[in-house]
Specification:
Diaminopimelate Epimerase, Chain A, domain 1, 18-stranded mixed beta sheet, alpha+beta, 18 strands
């Protein structure tokens, strides 16, 4: 499945479990040249009336607490597989339980994320030219957000890797998100922004990041640069929509909207 280019191998939890998926097996399946290829692997299972659970693994085999685009995909797939009745459900993850729902007959879904502390400016991070600050927020997983002059000009492989493991964000690191107007400084003055993400666990650029988009939108709202809802164009060219409210030092009423599209179904070989 793909969520705006952020792609995942999904497994039906009625036929497998997390015990069947040690690190090395996840890595093999997520490998792009010798496996199926994905940014992560998800085991989706029924969890009671109107509830499903999502066990998420990064491409390097580490367990992830939450992934926004995987959650959007999980919502569409749970409805398709009949794991829940109807289009609304509660999705359980390692980061908590979230209300989600399918939107229409296409591929769109919406995810209600819990309140989180408003982004804060991080001390101790030296900025590169064109960067307007480094902000930190935890949206299920930790994120750095850097407003820049033009995301197209960012050396993401170098700069993203530096920030992902920067001592200021702690030993577990953080995803590094860069945001600008779509066309750089002279780009359209609207609610639409462009972002790029260096994602931990993938250790490279992904084509979209759902929780990263929420971190970006909340940072722009704190800075007074965008009024929600905020449209964010991902690296894939597809849009994520973030609605939220800033109240005191909290971000509340958070909804992430985006794609959860089934690309193909298949059966893993016995020697994968």
């Amino acid at each position: 499945m793909t969520g705006s280019g952020n792609d995942f191998v999904f497994l039906d939890g009625r036929t497998t479990s997390t015990n069947d998926w040690p690190v090395e097996r996840v890595v093999r399946v997520c490998a792009r040249r010798s496996g199926v290829g994905a940014d992560g692997l998800v085991i989706l299972s029924p969890a009671g009336a109107g509830r499903v659970s999502m066990a998420f693994f990064n491409a390097d085999g580490t367990r992830g607490a939450m992934c926004g685009n995987a959650a959007l995909c999980a919502t569409r797939l749970a409805a398709r597989l009949g794991l829940v009745s109807g289009d609304e459900m509660v999705l359980e993850s390692d980061a908590g339980a979230f209300a989600t729902r399918c939107e229409g007959q296409g591929h769109r879904a919406r995810l209600n994320l819990p309140d989180f502390a408003a982004p804060v400016l991080m001390p101790g991070i030296a900025l590169d030219p064109g960067e307007g600050g480094a902000w930190f927020a935890t949206v299920g997983v930790p994120h750095l957000v850097l407003p820049v002059d033009d995301v197209r000009a960012v050396d993401l492989g170098r700069r993203g890797a530096e920030l992902r493991s920067h001592p200021a964000v702690g030993p577990d690191g953080a995803n590094a998100n860069f945001v600008s107007r779509p066309g750089g400084p002279s780009g359209e003055a609207s609610s639409r922004w462009a972002m790029r993400t260096f994602e931990r666990g993938v250790e490279g650029e992904t084509l979209a990041c759902g929780t990263g988009a929420v971190a970006v939108a909340s940072t722009l709202a704190v800075l007074g640069q965008a009024d929600p809802p905020v449209e964010i164009r991902t690296r894939s060219g597809l849009l994520l929509t973030v609605d939220l409210r800033i109240h005191l030092n909290q971000v509340t009423d958070v909804w992430l909207g985006g794609e959860g599209r089934l690309v193909y179904e298949g059966e893993l070989g016995s020697d994968e």
